[in-house]
Amino acid sequence: MADYSKKRFLVIDDQAQARDALRTVAQQVGAFAVEFASNYQDAIFRIRNNLPDIILCDYMLGEGRSGQQLLEELRRFNLLPDETIFMMVTGEQSYEQVVSAVELIPDDYIIKPFSPDRLLLRLDRIVAKKLFFAGYYKEKRQQEYAKALAILEAARDSEAGRPYRFEILRQRAEVFLASGDVKSAETAYRNILENYEFPWARAGVARSLHKQNRLQEAREEIDRVVANTPHFFDAGDLKASICMAQGEHAEAQQILDEMTKKTPRNYLRKRLLAEAATLNGDTATALAAMADVIANDTMPGAISAEDRLATARSHINAGDKITAEKVLIGIRDSELQKMGLMEQAGFAALLAISSVEKGKIRFAGLRPAMLVTEFNSTTRLDIMRAALSLGDHEMADRQSGQLMAGPDAKKVFGVARTQYALHGREKDFREIQRQVALQRIKHEEDVPPAEAADPA
Amino acid sequence: MHKLLDILASGVHDAKNQLFIAESMIAAAEAAHGIALGEARYAIESAANRLSRTLTAYHLMRHDAAAAVTPTIVGDVYDEVMLAQQKHLAERGIVLSIDCQVFDEWPLDRDLVTDMLNNAVQNAGRFAGQVVHLSATTDDDWLCLRVDDDGPGFATLPPATGTGLMVAERLAQLHHRHQRQGSLRLSNDSPLGGARFELRLP
């Protein structure tokens, strides 16, 4: 039995009586220091400022928030080290369904009512498990992926690893994914599926295929997951992303529209909705979603430069260049200086579109860098649009060529063609497409078939 | 959403929250005054389990019950059943023993299986003379979870089933893997001379 007297507990529950009950139970297992958080924001504040050892979190936190959402946000901001124990507490049997499906799970969950003895049994188990994986956690945190994998391989074959065989396989797949070895990740998830049809493992296969740009296969896998486990919302997000990559923006938006109604305070999903709506030409939805994100995603540091650029982009799409300009000018100099080259390029492009007068000098200054730097497709689109409106054909054609040759070609095709059409350059756009296709054929002839890029 | 189901689920949820508050107060009183109120806590947890099982039975009758399968350490499930039932059985002079020969994680619905076993041990305890025995083995890639007792055995086979057994049978069948399906076997094959409850999961 572990000694819990020196551990710091944090009890998170919106109901005062339930908080007291959880504290009482924690004290019976030996806890000395038990802190309270009465809502979502308070919980994040306390965890950021003084990380507890053990978190007991109720699943229902009120105000449309859940303990699962808190867990996801803590992971998103790297506020929850593997060593910290996160235990979900719930009276809802339905939470089991969540845990059995999703990729991001707490260390354990316990259903009310429960005795101090039972909590102790559960905590002891988690402590034993964390001790078993301690060396692995350390390597993973330092991104020493090869070492982390070696530890898992050894653990898999050891007698002591027998009780954790699925956990070891799951961690292995996640390390492959994190390290960018997406082929091995795919194989690792498929190995798990040979054993049992876990929704999170099937989603892992889809995620790995998406990263290999094998979109049709990824779509088939994720369709299965979403059909069988509609409450697995992260799978829905992944499906929407795959749909966007396939150029099926209306479908992506529809999925996200439905899910954001059920999870109105998930702001990562809101951002994804804004992206899908933008690609789908639904500017009003994109604007509303970004306004909600900027106003309500209250985590410090949550609102990024990209969010402000996304808002400005939505205003431009709505034909309101004055408001777009206002949003861009409103970004503080200190914030501008902290931006990376990609955000700076996006900023310059959007400003040049909103106000040629204010933006063109900055755009010209970054032009040499824009010609040679690898940017994501959103930034390339912004630069292409700005170049089209400034009459800079070389820059516009360079960006659209790169876009059509890149993995996001299907995703941005419609938007790019529309922009060329707006400037009366449809013919030129078709020519760029033709050149890219010729290049691809030539490339495939040069490379032996087995190594050729997947056509999907 | 299904309205009746929502009302039932939220009622069960609220009741379990209240029961948890009561149980925590009892636990605090036990610690503060050095008294043993384990039977009171046992009654509270049994009531909560009964509520959950009723909701599960309703899901089963609507045919929308699904197993929430997670990798589970079988020994851990047995430890929990032991913790929940041992003292209560001891009050009546019955010994609960465990022999778990399964050491790898197994994909199963932990909460449903724990509840089924708790229910089976409770039933066995009602008829046992001195011993209830829990065992776990693997047999040709099946997980076999057994509850044996030394009572008179089932009077008729198959026995007249109450809610608990009906639920257990249907829940066993919800466990699917590689085109195989779980099952429940009730017999008088207990090596202790009494009844045997055997859950076979793929």
Short characterization:
Chain A is mostly helical and 456 residues long. Chain A is 68% helix and 5% strand. Chain B is of the alpha+beta class and 202 residues long.
Structure overview:
The complex is a heterodimer of chains A (456) and B (202). Chain A is mainly alpha-helical. Chain A is built from 24 helices and five strands. In chain A, helix 4 (95-101) links the parallel strand 4 (85-90) and strand 5 (108-111). Residues 450-456 of chain A have low confidence and may be disordered. Helices cover 51% and strands 23% of the residues of chain B. Chain B contains five helices and nine strands. A five-stranded mixed β-sheet of chain B has the order 2-4-5-9-8. A two-stranded antiparallel sheet of chain B has the order 1-3. In chain B, strand 4 and strand 5 (142-149) form a beta hairpin. Chain B is globular and about 50 Å long. Chains A and B meet through helix 1, helix 4, helix 5 and helix 8 of A and helix 1, helix 2, strand 1 and helix 3 of B.
Would you spell out the secondary-structure blueprint of this structure?
The complex is a heterodimer of chains A (456) and B (202).
Chain A: E1 8-12, H1 16-28, E2 33-37, H2 40-49, E3 54-58, H3 67-76, E4 85-90, H4 95-101, E5 108-111, H5 116-132, H6 134-141, H7 145-157, H8 165-179, H9 182-195, H10 199-211, H11 215-228, H12 233-245, H13 249-262, H14 267-279, H15 283-296, H16 305-317, H17 321-329, H18 333-338, H19 341-354, H20 356-372, H21 377-390, H22 393-405, H23 409-422, H24 426-446
Parallel strand pairs in A: 1-2, 1-3, 3-4, 4-5
Chain B: H1 3-33, H2 38-62, E1 70-73, H3 74-91, E2 95-100, E3 105-108, H4 110-127, E4 131-139, E5 142-149, H5 163-173, E6 176-177, E7 180-181, E8 183-187, E9 196-201
Parallel strand pairs in B: 2-4
Antiparallel strand pairs in B: 1-3, 4-5, 5-9, 6-7, 8-9
Low-confidence regions of chain A: 450-456
The helicity of chain B comes to 40-55%
Q: What is the beta-strand fraction of chain A? A: 5-15%
Straight-line distance between termini of chain A:
54 Å
Mean pLDDT of chain B: 93
Sheet with the most strands, sense and barrel status of chain B:
5 strands, mixed
Strand order of the largest sheet of chain B: 2-4-5-9-8
**SSE arrangement of chain A, N to C:** EHEHEHEHEHHHHHHHHHHHHHHHHHHHH
Shape of chain A: globular
Q: Total strand count of chain B, please?
A: 9
